[in-house]
Amino acid sequence: MATAPHPNTIKLFNALVFDGDSEELTENGSIFIEGNTIRDVSSSNIKTPADLVIDCKQSFLMPGLIDLHFHVYSVTFDLRELDRLPSTILTLYAAKHLESSLLRGFTSVRDPGGADCSLHMAIEQGLIKGPRLFFGGKALSQTGGHGDTRLPHEENICGCASSSLLCHTVDGVDAIRKAAREELRKGAHHVKVHVSGGVGSQSDPIWMNQFTHEELCAVVEEATSRRKYVAAHCHTDDGARRCVAAGIRSIEHGTHITPETAALIASSGGVYVVPTFAVIHQILEYGPDTGLSRESVEKSAGLLEQMSQSLENCRRAGVGVGLGTDIFGTRFHPLQSKEFSYRSALEKPIDTLRSATSMNAEIMQQCHEVGRIAPGYKADIILVKGNPLKDITVLERYETHMPLIMKNGDIVKNTMPA
User: Fold this and answer.
1) 150: Cβ contacts below 8 Å, ≥ 6 apart
2) Measured CA angle at 396 (ends 411, 413), to 5 deg
3) How far out from the chain centre does Cα 328 lie?
4) Mean pLDDT by 10 residues, the chain (418 residues)
5) Nearest to 107 by CA among 310, 333, 408, 400
6) Which H or E element spans position 305?
7) In 10 A of CB 144, how many CB atoms?
8) Which of 43, 232, 295, 351 could staple 347 via S-S, CB 3.0–4.6 A?
């Protein structure tokens, strides 16, 4: 049976347009798309004919959402169990996670540990459905650091460094430099390092500093040589200062950032913070059901209050703040959209929407490609029934209140009446 030809030109009209930055919305806005690119944006009906014309009926039109902390292989929080799963099963789970995220309106995700070139290629070649995937390959951890999943009582008989699904364990300037080069060789969009302890690892306290300044600078130098950047898992205030000193661009979690450190980050130029409230809520609300050990769940005590205060400190200082989720556990992935509710209790909806669109694009060096509704940008667009600037929780109701999802000019979902 013959299929309908893919429309080369699409016109969306009668929309309330949020461009990804300005709080001033465009009423009765029109968007003209050619191929995968937005060609024109107008405050009146564009007269140019198109292959497909959609009346948005005053729905809220905005750039596709971006999640900067999305682990595609996040089947369970039990990282040791994760390492035992067959690669085929992991790939199928990744495809499920990616497609479900796209159907929640996330047209771009950044994986800071796990995803690789093969998944990126599979999406680009249409073998699986998913958002644009910006990947870092395996993250880098020191021995006994956040990415070292061995338990304290385990012995490493062979004496070699361990490597897991999500992370390489490396030590020393030469070793970390080589590991960074290898991930960059394989097409990584960034390199991730672990600068502090974490919740999911059992052998390191959260307050622990990880990697030396020289090791961190070596990774930054390697990423910069490829015009890429470094993201850092970092919970502590001291860790955030170490990130600034080493030239790390993206501070992930940023759980404890004092006003003084926030001012330092803001004045540094080119350093950003990406809070991840959804994962903390997940751990606090579901505890061991997430797959985390009792020790790891206990580590999360007080983190929500700290991250909330850190967000306030960063906003007051003028730090560029992104948005990530970091959910683990397939059944918990719908919590990705709850990030907007969690943030709405702490800041204005416009700030959260900017974080999830234009700011996230800026952080991952894609600010001229995605994250905005403007001529020359990729046609990553969602329609929302309701105004997120008045009620941002509408983004949680993606099944009923997100009638149109478009990625790269391709219509992923369209339930608008003809």
Assistant:
1) 156, 162, 203
2) 10
3) 13
4) 69 98 97 98 94 97 98 93 94 98 98 96 97 98 88 60 85 97 98 95 89 98 98 98 98 98 96 98 92 88 96 98 97 97 95 98 98 98 97 97 98 93
5) 408
6) helix 303-317
7) 17
8) 351
